[in-house]
Each structure stands twice: as structure tokens, then as C-alpha cells.
Specification:
There is one protein chain. By secondary structure, this protein is of the alpha+beta class. The protein has 2 domains: 155 residues, 2-Layer Sandwich (60s Ribosomal Protein L30, Chain: A), CATH 3.30.1330; 192 residues, Phosphoribosyl-aminoimidazole Synthetase, Chain A, domain 2, CATH 3.90.650. The chain contains 12 helices and 15 strands. The strands form 4 sheets. A 7-stranded mixed β-sheet has the order 10-12-7-13-11-15-14, with helices on both faces. Strands 3-6-4-5 form a 4-stranded mixed β-sheet, with helices on one face. Helix 1 packs parallel to helix 5 and helix 4 packs parallel to helix 5. It is globular. The mean pLDDT is 92.
Length: 369
């Protein structure tokens, strides 16, 4: 038994490093504000003036929480931490916009084995930059040092956000009609799902993060390409006169078919034609290197489609034009049909995704080369 006094620092927690991290991140956080934010950094709670919500006819609050998953392992391995925040914000706020809600504010949580102020500040700089892009206020957060639970260079991130929508503007499955068009909105790459599969494929090939892959360049940075944040642009689309969005789907965990199916009403199916687009090279590389079965690949990764939108056929081109003006490539990729019109012998139909008793989705054809 030692008679030496045990301090918090000797236990592995450096309070001064935490304070320095806060100082380093202040400038970034100031870029991710809205006029409704009250108070400054450091309070026990973030404050947001909700008086505008009180003036709405029938406000509905929407909330979402998520993390980045094992993609953080690549950020840690190549010591690049300023983009992972885009992955976090995209996973959280883009779920909120699916129901037509405007994300208002977000908080984050970073757990690490050892607080390195510059690393924490880099992570938060990415979160703040993504929040600013989405017009979402970053109003609070927490950095926790967990020595003994996490290694000194390990960390994980999570976040939560709140948004609001008028009840009359809520996007619900009942809006979807037979004959509607399904638009695909291009992803920026893998986004933040399926990295356990990706990392397993990389290991199976004996690659490391410095490996040069002909189609991708240096592997680590290529796989770390940040998630595209769609929220502000989709709100612009929703609010465009003459365009009536019936449904949106964020293509995240579970892949393309499962996420489309969960926003459709019972009794209809989205039939998606693979030949309408060519998945970016990263999906081909992962699929071929790991000999991943196509259905498993499609049930794990987004295959180059970050979002889908369902709307009347007559409005599809106008929506595509709006999205392309916002630098989002979009194209018609499918149609909504009644279940009676589906040829279930042609390809599997995904139903009941995420435990939701909703519609179905079927991928047919072959990807464009």
C-alpha cells in the first residue's frame, strides 16, 4: 500500500487539458450559431429562444441522436480529425430533415482516453463547420476523459439535435402515391456506415491506410472522405414553390432498399433501377476486394446514393434542377408501384426494415459501368 497521495491527474484525468481544449474550440463554435442562441459557451445547459416556435400553428418537435461508428478508427490511425465532425452532424441532422423538419440546434459528446487539446479542437472544428453549413446552432457539448476505458489516442463521438416542423408540413408515408418518381441524390462516398465491413476487407487484403489503390489514391484519406450534409439544401427543395415532396429517405445503416422502404406506406413498393447510375469506385473496390455478395454490399453501404426523394413525376425535372443548382447531382432512379404490380420473382423485395410495418423496395437491373 502506497502512502503517496493520489490526485485526479495521477488517475489519468487532466482538467487543465480539458480547459485548454475549450479555449481552442471557442472560435469554431462561434461560427455555428443562430440568432436564437442565448448565453455563451460553458453553461450547464445550452439555451435556445423558442418564441418563434410558439408562434407556429401546430409545431411538432423532431429529435435525433447518432454517432460516427468505426470510421473514427481511420481518423485516429492517420491522425486526421477535422472532418469526422461532418460525419457526426450529417448522421444526426439529416435524419431530422427526413420528416420535413428544420434542425435548430445540436449538442455533441466526445469520450477519449486522454484529452489532447489540439485533437479535441480539431474534432469540434469539423462539427462546427458542418453545423454552420446546415444552419444548425452548436449550443453545447461535453468532452470526457476516460483513462483505463479507452487508450490515450482513442475517442468516440456522438451527438443529438432538435428540429421543428408545422404539423401540416410533416412528411409522412401517406403522402406517397402510386406513380410517384424516386430521385437519387448522390453521396460523397461511403458516408458513415458499413465501416466494420470496409475495415475487414482492408485487413483481408493486407492493406494499410498508406496503401495506394489505383482507383482511389491513398486509402486512408480516401475512406475518410466526409459525409455530405444535405439538411439546408433539402429544406430549400421542400420550400420551393411548385415542388411537392412526398417523402425523403436518408440512406444510412441498412443500405438503400431498407431505408427507402421505411418511409413508404403499406401496400406500395419502390422499384429502383440500378442501371440509372454507376456507383463510385470506392464501392466497386470494396465489393471486389472482399468478394462481398451484391445483396450484402447493398444492404450495408449507400452505393453512391446519400438520399432519396419521392415526388410526382411531373415535378421530377424541376426538383433535379433545384438540386443541381445546389451542387447535388440527382437523377430519376425508380418509381412507386402498388404491391400487385411487383414481380417478386425478378428480385428480392425488402419489407419491414428497421421494424417498421411500411412499404417495400426492390432493386432491379445491373449497375451502369
Amino acid at each position: 500500500m502506497s502512502d503517496t497521495p493520489i490526485t485526479y491527474a495521477e488517475a489519468g484525468v487532466d482538467v487543465e487539458a480539458g480547459d485548454k481544449a475549450v479555449e481552442l474550440m471557442k472560435a469554431s463554435i462561434r461560427t455555428a450559431q443562430r440568432p436564437e442562441v442565448l448565453g455563451g459557451l460553458g453553461g450547464f445547459a445550452g439555451l435556445f429562444d423558442a418564441s418563434a416556435i410558439a408562434r407556429m400553428a401546430h409545431p411538432i418537435l423532431a429529435t435525433s441522436t447518432d454517432g460516427v461508428g468505426t470510421k473514427v478508427a481511420i481518423a485516429q490511425a492517420i491522425d486526421k480529425h477535422d472532418t469526422i465532425g461532418f460525419d457526426l452532424v450529417g448522421m444526426v441532422v439529416d435524419d431530422i430533415v427526413v420528416c420535413g423538419a428544420e434542425p435548430l440546434f445540436m449538442t455533441d459528446y466526445i469520450a477519449t482516453g486522454k484529452v489532447v487539446p489540439e485533437r479535441i479542437a480539431a474534432i469540434v472544428s469539423g462539427i462546427a463547420a458542418a453545423c454552420a453549413q446546415a444552419n444548425v446552432a452548436l449550443i453545447g457539448g461535453e468532452t470526457a476523459e476516460h483513462p483505463g476505458l479507452l487508450e490515450p489516442d482513442e475517442y468516440d463521438v456522438a451527438g443529438a439535435a432538435t428540429g421543428v416542423v408545422e404539423r401540416a408540413d410533416l412528411l409522412t408515408p401517406e403522402r406517397v402515391q402510386v406513380g410517384d418518381v424516386v430521385l437519387g441524390l448522390a453521396s460523397s462516398g461511403l458516408h458513415s456506415n458499413g465501416f466494420s465491413l470496409v475495415r475487414r476487407v482492408v485487413a483481408s487484403q493486407g492493406w494499410d491506410w498508406e496503401t495506394e489503390v489505383a482507383e482511389l489514391g491513398t486509402l486512408g484519406p480516401a475512406l475518410l472522405t466526409p459525409t455530405r450534409v444535405y439538411a439546408a439544401d433539402l429544406l430549400t427543395l421542400i420550400r420551393t414553390d411548385g415542388i411537392d415532396i412526398h417523402a425523403l429517405s436518408h440512406i444510412t445503416g441498412g443500405g438503400l432498399a431498407a431505408n427507402i422502404a421505411r418511409v413508404l406506406p403499406h401496400g406500395v413498393t419502390a422499384v429502383v433501377d440500378r442501371s440509372s447510375w454507376a456507383p463510385p469506385a470506392v464501392f466497386t473496390v470494396i465489393g471486389q476486394a472482399g468478394r462481398v455478395p451484391q445483396l450484402d454490399l447493398e444492404g450495408t453501404l449507400n452505393m453512391g446514393v446519400g438520399f432519396t426523394a419521392v415526388l410526382p413525376q411531373a415535378q421530377a425535372q424541376a426538383a433535379i434542377d433545384v438540386l443541381r443548382s445546389l451542387d447535388i447531382d440527382a437523377w430519376p432512379m425508380g418509381r412507386i408501384v402498388s404491391d400487385e404490380q411487383v414481380d417478386e420473382q425478378a428480385a428480392p423485395v425488402v419489407r419491414g426494415a428497421k421494424g417498421v410495418d411500411a412499404g417495400g423496395a426492390q432493386l432491379v437491373g445491373t449497375y451502369r459501368a
